[in-house]
Amino acid sequence: MTDWKKICALTDIPVLGSRVVKSTQHGDIAIFRTSADEVFALHDKCPHKGGPLSQGIIAGRQVTCPLHSWKIELDSGNVVAPDSGCSKSFAAKLVDGDVYLSV
Predict the structure, then answer these.
(1) What's the half-sphere exposure (Cβ side, CA atoms, 13 Å) at 87?
(2) What is the domain-level CATH number for residue 87?
(3) Number of domains in the chain
(4) Domain hosting residue 64, numbered range
(5) DSSP class per residue in 25-66
(6) Going residue by residue through the chain (103 aa), what tens digit of pLDDT does each one get?
(7) 70: exposed, middle or buried (C-beta count within 10 Å: 0-12, 13-18, 19+)?
(8) Are 91 and 2 in contact, with CB atoms under 8 Å apart?
(9) How does strand 57-59 pair with strand 5-9?
(10) Is the pTM of this model over 0.70?
(11) For the Rieske domain, which residue ranges apply (predicted)?
């Protein structure tokens, strides 16, 4: 069984922006909002040099790391080729205008 925790209202996350949630077990988790109001959650650390993904630019369903421009898929955490690597993804969902996270 999955435990979901209410994080915030969708409107608390800017369109094409993010919000960081502190987790003692998993470190910082970035919750992203796309232009289509989809929500995704990734470990807030680029697999390349540890850049804060929450400060990256969102385009479509990808975020670009602000340090070295690596692109990471929001739904899987996989880095887009030609680079390689993965940022841990977490389950996130939207219910009645509220964002929930499962770690």
Answers:
(1) 34
(2) 2.102.10.10
(3) 1
(4) 5-102
(5) TT--EEEEE-TT--EEEEESS-TTT---GGGSEEETTEEE-T
(6) 469 999 999 999 999 999 999 988 889 999 999 999 999 999 999 999 999 999 999 999 999 999 999 999 999 999 999 999 999 999 999 999 999 999 8
(7) buried
(8) yes
(9) unpaired
(10) yes
(11) 5-101
